[in-house]
Design goal:
This protein is mainly β. It is built from no helices and 11 strands. It has one domain. It has a 6-stranded antiparallel beta sheet with strand order 4-3-2-1-5-6, with no helix packed on it. Strands 10-9-8-7-11 form a 5-stranded antiparallel beta sheet, with no helix packed on it. Strand 9 and strand 10 form a beta hairpin. The two termini are 29 Å apart. About 4% of the residues have low confidence.
């Protein structure tokens, strides 16, 4: 089992809030700011979860990251849950089908900050 970790993309401010606690039941999340807990409704945010994997540079891979898988001719993929989404079809399972991928994957961005990398909008 991997570490459970979330981050939130603020749709209005266009920035990440890291290390958030998320409740899907309440559709809210919280984070610490200036030694206080801040609760937010999910409406203006996109919540993404850590996959438990790191790329070749030891950077944590989160859902909605855009990655290059070097062993597949540098194709670009989007991480969706534990899968790599290659233009709409779940092609590869991060944990089981690729094997030891950490040396072959590099995060090049995410769909919120770098949609131009995919030439499509999520």
């Amino acid at each position: 089992m991997h570490e459970i970790k979330f981050r939130a993309w603020d749709k209005i401010e266009k920035k990440w809030i890291n290390n958030v606690l998320y409740s899907s039941e309440w559709q809210q999340f919280c984070y610490v700011q200036n030694n206080s807990f801040i609760w937010q409704d999910k409406n203006n945010f996109n919540i993404v979860e850590y996959t438990g994997l790191k790329d070749k540079n030891r950077k944590e891979i989160f859902e909605k990251d855009i990655i290059i898988l070097n062993k597949l001719d540098d194709r670009k993929f989007v991480v969706i849950e534990n899968y790599l989404d290659w233009y709409g079809s779940h092609e590869y399972c991060l944990h089981c089908e690729i094997g030891n991928i950490e040396d072959d994957i590099e995060i090049i961005g995410n769909i919120y900050e770098n949609p131009e990398l995919l030439n499509e909008k999520y």
